[in-house]
Amino acid sequence: MMKQDLIVYLGVLILALVFYFVITEPVVFSPTVSLILIGIIGLVLLYILIKTIRGQVFGRRTVFLFVGIAVVLPFFMSIRQDIKLSPEVEELYNAVMALQPGSKVLVSLDYDPPSAPELQPMAESFFLLCFRRDLKVIVMGLWPQGPQQAELAIQKILDRPEMASRNIRYGIDYVNLGFQTGNEFVIQRMGGSFRSMFSTDYYGTPYDSLPLVRNITNFNNIDFSFNLSAGYPGTIEWVQVAVDRYGVKLGAGNTAVQAPQVYPYLRAGQLTGLLGGLNGAAEFEKVTGVLGKGTKFMVSQSFSHVIVIAFIIIGNVAYFMGRKQETKKKQ
Amino acid sequence: MRREIPLIITAVVGFVYVIQYFIPHYPFNNLNGWFSDWFSIIGACAIWLGALNLMRISFDKVYKKRRDWGYSIIIILSFALIVVIGFGGGRDFRDLGTNFDWLYRFIYTPLSATMFALLAFFVASASYRAFRARNLEASLLLVAAFFVMIGRVPVGDALVTKVAGLISLPIPDAVLPSKIATWIMNYINAAGQRAIMIGIALGIVSTSLRVILGIERAHLGGE
Prior knowledge:
By secondary structure, chain A is an alpha/beta fold. Helices cover 57% and strands 10% of the residues of chain A. The interface between A and B is large, with 67 and 59 residues.
């Protein structure tokens, strides 16, 4: 078993090296070629459907192959999608736009790299919007890797040419308080005193030496809060402690898996806006006017959703054909 | 005493946390602060305990040459590498451009994202095999899943509009897949989630009370 695994890993490594050294220029198919490829995939799916009706059952490897194609192929296609704004994304955007310049925004990044493809574009768009609006950003994390993800996102935003003229300074315009262990207890203690939970920032600078947070005691000094979450602790804990107990105004960005769980809070008004999954990230990118990875990856997501739906239909056809044959046999 | 002391600690901490929620004044606010500090200290120690336990299990696996012991060697080497580079980098080990940052960005991030991405393949395979219209409930779930999946991506609306345009059929905004998906999320999903959350909350309350009152002792290794 291990020998087989090693052969597969070696194959992947060789493929990666070929892509890195041989295909040095990015490959982009024209819209016509892209449409032809989509047509071919559609025809193959139709062929699978016909074969299924005739009684042939396709295994999971076929599904894996099609999902792989659906995810990878769009990266080489020049296809654009019309992304529409949902009410929950619009609500979050309006809430940020309603803040006065100089308002203090607390951003908690409660996720790690596995969820970064969905949540990192949200973080980047949110930081960009905050810096453009001259909002003061305080970053923290209830997950160990959260503040590190924040550093990557902020650095990417600060590298943009438009940010150079704004002269955004650490400690004055934004602060990274880092990670603190304790899950919802951290939020609860922050309700009494931020200083008690974050005696130093991410870089070890004492709390009182940071001009931005020096006068911030608790949630009463925060104008808006935004949480990016991939699980526990995350948005649900922020709502239950920060919103319900301390009256914090909170917006959230969640992975597509977690988003359905927080809809009750959105409907109850405990959440001010929600970015759900990659679609939420793409919508927020659209509304902020800077298209990034969220928008780019949405094509792959659209393709894979269509492929999954196609295979669900094929699976149901196979199920009904099987039942029909069983009934015939019984008769 | 080995059982009584943990039970007393659990009861005192549990009651203080409940009381301080309703009476956030002295002495409960102070007690709450102390206990929260202890929670953080225990949490920090647990991280070390977890790491050391992982090493112990991995070394044991390699020593006894259990199944797939080769992967345990990779775990040990990776752990050693990241610990040495992390501690070797001093206080600023996480700064952009450091060796630790390089490992984080170009090894840890892609590897963990790959693990998460595998979910797409399993979800697709599971949907293909399990999403069957066996009865009314399953059919309703199937229809809801169909609209959520197609409505949560822009291609859904585009397809419906395109097909409707081809046969010159006027499509009202309310029946676009994105609108139907939003409706399902806001009403049907929210109602279901509320029911689940209320159930979970009641379960947590009853279990917490059992733990605080010392009726439930499973966490102490008892019955």
